[in-house]
Design goal:
- This protein has 15 helices and 5 strands.
- It has about 300 residues and is of the alpha/beta class.
- The protein has a 5-stranded parallel sheet with strand order 2-1-3-4-5.
- Helix 1 links the parallel strand 1 and strand 2.
- It starts with 5 loop residues before the first strand and ends with a helix.
- The relative contact order is 0.08.
Length: about 300
């Protein structure tokens, strides 16, 4: 029997050294569809350059893939082991460019790094680039996972997709673009309340420089507190802009101090590298000396400053 379903295009980004994993991603998506698509009214459609691209003259290959495939996808799954891929005009590898382009478009990206043994004939320069990418990702709000063999990757990926679908995080962030255009304050608040924390975060990014009633910023923060990680990442975004007097920043700090020690630690650790004065102001204003997680951070910072 036929049924109506929302189709999510899933772009598979990876260099040539993880062909097994590319096949596994397709198999996992097929498995998820077979079990869940009718009940969830959702379908996950794999998109790859080898299956969906056609030769085109007059364009760089990576530009074609970006514009004709990646930009039309909702989700990216990236996999890295010993290579970052062939260099492009802007990045060390095509897969790396795809990851950062996806994130720049405010769409969902899930990255995985293999911990399988490095082959003896591996290009050590490429291996080092993968390690640099991994370290960069660790210091960013990008979600990533690790695996040690093909079976572990398959199980991990399926579980993560189940979690993301349950959380609603595979909903297109285009929803946030629609909500951001609402002019009536009450209608805007109602729309924010009816969506997931990820959408609220993207709405804030879209309207951060606009003038709105304080109730709008409170509504965004109240939604974000249901996902401390999204609240933390939103505060980091505001801190990087130097928006320390923004109403959403003030309300967000108050909520993060209340609800989650680990994400508070992560935020404060990042904040120290952005603005030390703001770090110490929050530390004293909110009496974070009482927090065990922050005590550990202060010890770490003290050791760094002593050199």
């Amino acid at each position: 029997m036929s049924y109506t379903a929302k189709v999510y295009s899933v772009f598979i980004a990876s260099p040539s050294d993880v062909q097994n994993e590319r096949a596994i991603v397709k198999r996992v998506l097929q498995r998820w569809n077979a079990i869940n698509s009718e009940a969830k009214k959702s379908v996950l459609l794999p998109v790859t350059w080898e299956d969906n691209a056609a030769p085109e003259a007059g364009m760089f290959a990576q530009d074609y893939l970006n514009e004709e495939l990646l930009d039309k996808c909702d989700i990216l799954i990236g996999i890295f082991w010993t290579r970052v891929g062939t260099p492009t005009r802007h990045f060390k590898g095509g897969s790396v460019e795809e990851v950062y382009r996806q994130i720049g478009n405010r769409r969902q990206a899930m990255l995985y790094f293999s911990n399988k043994p490095i082959p003896a004939d591996a290009d050590l320069d490429q291996v080092q680039e993968v390690r640099r990418l991994k370290e960069t990702v660790k210091c960013s709000p990008i979600m990533f996972g690790e695996y040690y063999d093909d079976a572990n990757f398959e199980n991990t990926l399926y579980n993560h997709i189940q979690i993301k679908m349950k959380e609603g995080k595979f909903r297109s962030t285009w929803d946030s673009d629609i909500i951001s255009k609402i002019k009536d304050e009450k209608e805007l608040i109602s729309a924010i309340n009816g969506h997931f924390p990820l959408v609220a975060k993207n709405v804030l990014i879209n309207i951060v420089d606009d003038k709105h009633d304080d109730d709008v910023w409170k509504a965004i923060v109240n939604k974000l507190q249901k996902s401390p990680a999204d609240l933390r990442d939103t505060l980091i975004f505001l801190a990087k802009r130097g928006a320390f007097k923004h109403p959403a920043y003030k309300h967000g700090i108050e909520k993060l101090v209340e609800i989650n020690q680990q994400d508070l630690y992560s935020f404060m650790n990042t904040l120290y590298s952005i603005n030390k004065y703001e770090f110490w102001d929050i530390y004293t204003s909110y009496k974070l000396v009482q927090s065990e997680a922050i005590k550990r951070l202060i010890i770490k910072i003290t050791e760094i400053e002593k050199g």
